[in-house]
Amino acid sequence: MVQTAPTSGVLSPNLSPDLPPDLSKDLASARQTLAREVEGLEALAQSLDDSFSRAIETIHRMKQKGRGRLIVAGIGKSGHIARKIAATLASTATPAYYIHPGEASHGDLGMITEDDVIIMLSYSGTNAELTDMILYAQRFHIPLIAMTGNAQSPLAVHSDHLLLLPKVAEACPNGLAPTTSTTQMMALGDCIAIALLERVGLTAEQFRVWHPGGKLGQKLRKVTDFMIKNSDLPLVSPKTLMSEALIVLSEKNLGSVIIIDDQHRLLGIITDGDLKRHMSPDLLQKPVMEIMNAHPRIISEDMLGVKALDLMIGDPSTPPITSLIVTTAEQKVVGLLRIQELLRAGLS
Predict the structure, then answer these.
(1) pLDDT tens-digit series, residues 33-74
(2) Which fold has domain 223-344?
(3) Which of 128, 139, 140, 180 is the most buried (most CB within 10 A)?
(4) What does each C-alpha distance from 258 to 133, 255, 322, 328 come to in angstroms?
């Protein structure tokens, strides 16, 4: 009997022998398409040679000069892939943008400078719209990288670096719709972006510069972006009596007070839990030094917020740590991080 998911109604891909004929054919078609595209990617991996390395070196040298940009161009389906490649490059520290070859012939060539590098996508390499950009690159000695499946095409012949896509059948049964070939282009664009990223050793912190918004941007924010700091911190000296410390705790309303010395170095913390454990008739007359936890958990302000949240949650079977003290390498208190701030920012 055919089983369906109780809410979505999605058919299990493992039950194809029991499906109605048309649905079984759909699954078989999808698997065939993926198999052909995997073949295309495997062939691409085997085909890469020194031309790829030379192309990466050309782009890297351009970046080192600090002036040029990588111009990505293409027509039709290749154009859509080119836009995605340009977006990936721009987000991984390689200045890049897409130019439509047709628009380039009507004035947009002026956007391309002699400091730039051009990478042009066309599986056939024979599109008439590409001609003006190819000639422009030659005239001004702008390095041209070709991504094409035709080594004899004008694009390939006039390029400085040829990234030749291996001949593999399209997933389309008629061999017409660009499928396997565009998958190869997309993957090769990722190869370029990652190789360049690794050349400069781009870190997650640097990556955040180009991704300040959305979920990704939040996950790349540092502890310093979430922590409570400066005059909002509940700070007291070690000789402060608990009667005064409770006033600070109430005024700051952060569930704790932090004890520091005259150099602003951390000595300890008192939380609501510490108050309950030390409850006694003379509690208010005691100095905070007698009540505080002298070994609180600390973190650096440079730590990613998402990593701090992992520390605070820890083992899901135990209660989370609700606050962490943020200190410098010299143990000076610079902030207080509360789990509420991280959860409010959507880091969970």
Answers:
(1) 999 999 999 999 999 999 999 999 999 999 888 889 999 999
(2) CBS-domain (3.10.580)
(3) 180
(4) 65, 10, 14, 15
